[in-house]
Design goal:
Length: about 400
C-alpha cells in the first residue's frame, strides 16, 4: 500500500476531492503530517453514505486477520481524533449482538470461543447479563455477545465537527464546498468553475460515484460496468434502507444487532452458522438485518437492508421497514416511538472478501481511494493513515 512515496512532491499541499468521511479523515491525517490541505466537495455539505449511516465503529463482525487489524487501528484513531473533535459524538459504548433462538445462540457461543475473541473484546452473556449491560433490552432473548471494542459516532455531526477541528488548526486547511472536480491532470484537478487546484498529491475520495473523474479508473462490476477499469479490485454499489424514530424514553447503553446480522458479518462464519434456519421471507427478500443505535438526542436509528442489483429502486420498501421495526420492538419489549425519518444510502464496495478497500495511483500525483463498503465509517481513519504512511 506504500505507493505514495513515489508520487509525493515538495509543495507540502494535498488536494482532497470528496467531503465524506474518507475525504475528511484524509484531511485529518494530512494535517497530522504537517501538509496543507485543499478540500473540495461538490455539494454544500457531505450528502453521501457518510451522513446516512449508523455511525457504528464496528470491530466485532470483522473478518479475522487484516480486516480486523485495520478496524482495531481505526478504533484507536477514532478515539484519539475524537479527543480533539468531541463534536463527532464518539463514545466507546460497545455493542450487543442478541440471540432470539437456539441456533443463533450456538453461533454466538462459537464466536465467543474464536482465537481472536479477546481482540474483539467478546463476552457471551445470558439474558440477565444482557439486561445488566443494557437494561433497555426488555424483550424475549436467549443471550447476547457483548463486544466492548465497538463504538458509536454521530454521522450527522461528525463531518462538520472534524472540519471545525481542522479549521482551528490554522490556515493550512481550506474547505471548498460547491466545487466539483471535473478534470484530472498530474498532481492537479480542475473544478467546474475552471480553477485548477494543485499539490504534491491529489486524493480522490468520491465515494459511490462511479462516473465523472473517477469513472475511467474503476473496475466496476454490475450495471455500471462500462468503465474500462485500470486494475484493482472490482467494485460494486450497495443500497441500504434506514429509518429514525422520535426520541425513545429509555436509554440504550450499547448499540444492538439481532441474530440476522450473524449472516452478514464474516466474523460469524463459524460451523454453527450452517444450522441457522432461513430468514423470514420479507427479511430474506430485502437481505435485512437489525442494527439499532440510539442517537445523542434519544432517537433510534434502525436499519438495514441490502440491494445489490442496479438500477436500484428510487423509492423505499415499506415491507422491509415493518420487519425491522417489529424486530426492534420485540427486543426492546414494547412499541417504538413514531418514525420521524426514512432514507436510503449507497456505498461502494470492493467485490470479494480478500480486499478491504480500493486504492490505486491513477496517474502521477493522483490516488483514488474508495470501496470500503459497510466498513467505511469504521475504517476511514486507518485507511487515510495508510495513504500517508
Ligand atoms: C445506510 C448505510 C449505513 C452504513 N452504516 C455504516 C456503519 O454504521 N459503520 C461503518 O463503518 N460504515 C457504514 N456504512 C458505510 C460507510 O457509510 C461508507 O463506507 C462511507 O461513508 C464511505 O465514505 P466516502 O467518503 O467514501 O463516501 P461518501 O460519504 O459518499 O462521500 C463521497 C463524497 O464525494 C463527493 N464527490 C463525489 N464526486 C465528486 C467530485 N467530482 N467533486 C467533488 N466532490 C465529489 C460526494 O458529493 C460525497 O459527498 C454505511 C453505509 C450506508 C449507506
Amino acid at each position: 500500500m506504500a505507493i505514495l512515496v513515489t508520487v509525493m512532491g515538495d509543495s507540502g499541499r494535498v488536494v482532497i476531492v470528496g467531503g465524506g468521511i474518507l475525504g475528511t479523515m484524509h484531511a485529518v491525517m494530512a494535517r497530522r503530517h504537517g501538509l496543507a490541505v485543499t478540500h473540495l466537495e461538490r455539494e454544500a455539505e457531505g450528502r453521501g453514505a457518510s451522513v446516512r449511516n449508523f455511525g457504528l465503529i464496528w470491530v466485532s463482525g470483522r473478518r479475522a486477520g487484516a480486516e480486523l487489524a485495520l478496524a482495531q487501528r481505526a478504533r484507536e484513531l477514532w478515539e484519539s481524533i475524537a479527543a480533539d473533535a468531541p463534536g463527532t459524538g464518539f463514545r466507546p459504548a460497545g455493542s450487543l449482538t442478541v440471540a432470539s433462538s437456539e441456533p443463533e445462540l450456538a453461533v454466538l457461543r462459537e464466536a465467543a470461543d474464536l482465537p481472536d475473541a479477546k481482540q474483539r473484546e467478546f463476552e457471551l452473556l445470558d439474558p440477565a447479563g444482557v439486561r445488566e449491560v443494557n437494561p433497555a433490552l426488555r424483550g424475549e432473548l436467549l443471550g447476547g455477545l457483548w463486544c466492548r471494542a465497538d463504538a458509536i459516532a454521530e454521522p450527522r455531526l461528525a463531518l462538520p465537527a472534524l472540519r471545525a477541528f481542522l479549521a482551528r488548526g490554522g490556515p493550512g486547511y481550506e474547505w471548498l464546498p460547491g466545487h466539483e472536480a471535473v478534470e484530472l491532470a498530474e498532481h492537479g484537478v480542475r473544478d467546474q468553475l475552471g480553477q485548477w487546484h494543485r499539490g504534491d498529491l491529489v486524493v480522490l475520495c468520491t465515494g459511490a460515484n462511479f462516473t465523472g473523474i473517477a469513472g475511467p479508473h474503476l473496475a466496476v462490476t454490475g450495471a455500471l460496468a462500462s468503465a474500462p477499469g485500470a486494475g484493482g479490485a472490482g467494485l460494486r454499489r450497495v443500497r441500504l434502507q434506514m429509518l429514525q424514530t422520535l426520541p425513545f424514553p429509555g436509554r440504550l447503553t450499547t448499540s444492538v444487532a439481532d441474530g440476522d446480522s450473524l449472516r452478514y458479518y464474516p466474523a460469524y462464519d463459524v460451523p454453527a452458522l450452517a444450522s441457522l434456519p432461513p430468514q423470514a421471507e420479507v427479511a430474506a427478500q430485502s437481505r435485512a438485518q437489525l442494527l439499532l443505535v440510539q442517537r445523542l438526542d434519544g432517537s433510534l436509528t434502525i436499519g438495514d437492508t441490502h440491494e445489490y442489483d442496479e438500477p436500484f429502486g428510487f423509492d423505499v420498501d415499506e415491507g422491509a421497514y415493518d420487519h425491522l421495526v417489529a424486530r426492534a420492538a420485540a427486543l426492546l419489549g414494547g412499541p417504538l416511538p413514531r418514525v420521524q425519518r426514512r432514507w436510503a444510502g449507497v456505498y461502494s464496495e470492493v467485490a470479494g472478501g480478500a480486499t478491504i478497500y480500493h486504492r490505486s495511483a491513477v496517474m502521477p500525483g493522483v490516488v483514488l481511494v474508495t470501496g470500503p463498503g459497510g466498513r467505511g465509517m469504521t475504517c476511514s481513519p486507518a485507511i487515510a493513515e495508510e495513504t500517508f504512511q
